[in-house]
Amino acid sequence: MTVVEQPAPAGVLPEPSGAGLPGLDEVVLCASLFYFRIPRELWSARLAQVRSSGYQAIDVYLPWNFHELAPGEWDFTGRRDVAAFLDLAHEAGLRVIARPGPYICSEWDGGALPAWLGLAGTDGLRQAEPRYLDAVRAWFDRALPILAERQLGRGGSVVAVQLENELDFFDTRDRTAYVGALAEMARAHGIEVPLIACAGQGDLAGATGDVPGVVPACNFYPDDRSPFVEPEVRRYRHLLAERGLPLLVTETNRAHATLRRLVASGAGLVAPYLQASGYNVGFTPSVGNWGDPAGFMAHDYDFHGFLSPVGQARPELADARVLAALVRLLGADLARGLPEAADDAYATDAPTSASPSRLRMPSGATLLAVPNLGDVDAEVSLAVGPDRVSAPLPGLICLLVLAELPLARFGLPGTLELATADLVAADPTGLTLAATGRSALVLRAPDGERTVLEVDAPAPGATVRHRVAVGDSTWDVEVVHPRDVAGPASLDADADADADADAATPVSDEAQELGPLRALRAAELPAPQRHAVAPWSEEVGVWRGRTHYRASVADVRELLLEGAGDILDVALLTGDGDASIAHRTLTPFGATTLLDVADATEVAVTAETWGHANFDDARLPGLRLGSLRGLGRVWAVTGRDDVGALWRVEGQWSGRPAPLRTLGGWSSTRVGLPITYRRTLPIDGEHHYALHLSGVPGAVEVTLDGEPRLVSAHEPWLHLEPGRGRDVTVTLPHLPGSLGAARLLRLSEVRDWSVQPEPDDVYLARVADAAETADAIELPLALEPGEERVLALRVPAGGLSLRFAGQQVRVSVVAGRELLGRVWLDDPARPRFTGGDAHRTWLPAAWNTGAVRLLVRGMAGPGVPELRRAWAEPTPQ
Asked: Where in this chain does the record put each Glycoside hydrolase 35 catalytic domain (predicted)?
């Protein structure tokens, strides 16, 4: 990594202490809280819950495509009123790190880049390219003034603005020019607080372009059991300290055992990502690379932080309050501490850090992180002068051992020489610590005499109290259970009470069966459009939603689809009507797909967008950032050749003239060294072709007419334009058994398509405005493959998790004009879902009018499509 010296940006403290953010001379704990994933009616309650945790700040993405709904169509009203959300955050006493992108990742549709940007190609995205920067400028012209007006000191609480997001993961050609252009826009709009840019894989220059005035930040996502967290974090603390900058951890895991290790390693900002969970309403979940390799993000967006998507407090909230109380109590002393390796600071049989961290504070106090990375409870032994004390070290926790803390600052005598419990309060009346088990406490009087106290474990609501006397010094000590640690004293009493009530409100586990349903009659789709070739969904204005395609395949036996996604409901039709002979549901993620259409006269396909890629992954076309959705390019296969033989072998001491082998057929002991296969393909110069390679081991390099391309195991196809690809070479590390058959398919593009766009607003209107009928529907409900029904369902009052059971059925749930979620029931064709509970649809209490509407679609499979059950579980909000 190249470290470039930079001047300290405006608003950053001159020394690398604390978070280096204006108005915060202390270690800052920051929780993600995303207004676009929470109903507006719940913003205040969720902010109060976060504030009750003791965290001082929130980080907030601003998704570009949540506000620009179509090109030039902007919305900052209702649940998109980010200005109102920021004002509420300020009123709640929370500082804000604002993250307006333009790219945000966040497992959000397209990483917040509007879908239409991909129509101009993907080469300009996240680049210093004029057209892309003009589009970004239009977004920043609307978003940045909102932030500028709410900076700290101007009537708001925005203390930093993040540009871009984990740019070091992306192939930006000129990072300095790109990040510099974003920074220039921000400063032009009056952003005076620090500008930051986070590195996703530790490449500080890759994240910032080394642009002066842009502060590098780090995202750490270690395995919570990794023994190497501390040395990695300390390294980045050192690198940034050399520039006079603090270590800002803008994203990390949510477990407080890990967060404690970061604090002791010198992080000034600790911002666990998605500590407060949320929910993706609408067509907003992304398609991402968390599957094998691809998958769908669930509408339920939950990484198990201290608040669930439906507002339920989790046990981690108590852990948050304890750590926050410790950080608040130690204040600037902790923030200005210097981390060091403490390899011999303790002894334990538990798996622990490879190089523990100890923070040495200006007061002389130290904070030592002692993690148990295993599941089994253990003991830890610590030195106290010439003696040693021991304390329990439960599994999967991290003790923060405070030592040599002068107590005069709290109006108390002597020194806290060591505490294995967390010090959460101190004043002239005594010391309050928090622990779940037995703990050790060592106090030293001003004359040097010490006392060692072994404190029994407290229970919730049952505080353990001691009066400790050493010579003329007396201390009153109480040890409480973490559940009894209160939020910050500065919190407004009413807000604190509301937050506690929300956190403590019991939610019934009793599920209520729902039904019967009532059949509805949806409006017809818009009139068909004629297109010479199948358009992308975005080409017909479907940024989110569905596109319906239909074309004749009367003289075609096989189709080849390129780039199709996300969900393709395929019907093969025959005769003059709509009689179907086969149905199939595909989720190809853009991968080239062959489709047998023999005996069909027409093909009808509904292409539903689940979401656009939120990351850039080259293994599948649909995982590329900016990739489009819809049916893709559709070709009739008009011929095929076996081209698996007659490959000339080059390299690995192959002879002259070059021997001929099958593709991958060379035998050699030189495993891992490059081997090249070369041959001429039988192309006619007039048609398109597709070359398919079987058995690709990970990825191979293919050169067509001198142009190199990469072919992966997940997309082992190459498209050859007319006249291209006559000469082909395949180069790969030699591995016996790699590669195999090779096929060359001659193609002809399928033409004359009937297309019916169904963008999200039309989709929702068709369901919300569907006419009622007198037909009652009892469950279970059997459907035909490809059949779609719109149904009304009565629900009880309050917040609800709606759940469904059945097979080979997809259920979309609509309330008003909002798509609450989509659930894909048991089905062999179901792709992998990640990110949360993919079986739950959340109906917030504020949106519950007593009924929802369902769009239910049957899919082909081994059984009969069937919706068997629907039930509701109460939620706290």
From this structure: 25-230
DSSP letter string over 713-766?
TTB-EEEE-TT--SEEEEEEE--TT----EEEEEEEE---EEEEEEEHHHHHHH
Determine the average pLDDT of the residues in 414-442. Answer: 98
Kindly state whether residues 588 and 659 are assigned to the same domain.
no
Question: In total, how many domains does the chain have?
Answer: 5
**Which H or E element spans position 304?**
none
What are the tens digits of pLDDT across the range 13-48? 334 556 778 888 999 999 999 999 999 999 999 999
Q: Where are the alpha helices (DSSP H) in 601-713?
A: none
Q: Give the structural domain span for 681.
A: 645-740
In 3D, which of 172, 261, 268 has the Cα closest to residue 225? 261
Q: Which CATH number covers residue 816?
A: 2.60.120
Looking at the structure, do residues 620 and 687 belong to the same domain, yes or no?
no
Domain boundary among 274, 305, 326: 274
Going by the DSSP 8-state scheme, the letter that residue 417 receives in this structure is E
What pLDDT does residue 577 have? Answer: 62
Could you give the dihedral angle defined by the CA atoms of residues 674, 680, 681 and 684, in that order, rounded to the nearest 10 degrees? 150
Same domain, 620 and 676: no
Are 666 and 630 within one domain? no
Give the tens place of pLDDT for each residue, 53-73: 999 999 999 999 999 999 999
DSSP string over 342-384: -TTSEEESS---SS-EEEEPTTS-EEEEEEE-SSS-EEEEEEE
Looking at the structure, do residues 149 and 255 belong to the same domain, yes or no?
A: yes
Let me know whether 42 and 144 are in one domain.
yes
Note the pLDDT tens digit of each residue in 550-602: 999 999 999 999 999 999 999 999 976 667 889 999 999 999 999 999 999 99
